Amino acid sequence: MRQAEYTTRERLLTAAESLLLETGYERVSIRAVCAAAEVNPAAVHYHFGSKEALVAALLQSRLGPLWESSMEGLEGRGASVAECVSGVIDPLVVLAADPIGRLHLRLLSRLVLGRQDIAWTARWFTLDPFVELLRRQHPELPEHEARTRWMLAFDLILGQFGAPLADDHVLSARAVTTLRAFVTAGLES
Prior knowledge:
single chain, 72% helix
């Protein structure tokens, strides 16, 4: 990617993040993002294609590194299901402790739970690696069943961490422990 394109792209991501934090998803328009980034009004469409794709790119750039560092080591050593669940949840606990992190969680929840048709490009934003990890521990499990279990697990996890009506509610340590145990049991059953 050329330097000018990267700069415009990053300016759009930064402007979108700031506006989303200030006014919320519903009130942020593509035009407002372009104006805040001081770029051509068509820049979001050129670089991302849509508001949803802009938000997905923002989430992948901000959350992707957290999940990568959490999950990559587990994948290489054939981690247990409980370790994989912790690898998913632990970065979310960190994000939930910060207002910007909570914004990211609400946005991720909105896209995933709303079944938005997003072409995720970051590896840990798709179900495939999670399905592979689960099937290593339970090879008898059909691929479609492993996929369904992870979809339900992410629905529950994101519903707890990113519920749009939860405002700035942060899960207690006890609730996180219960969530971790419940999701692990559901994946292994």
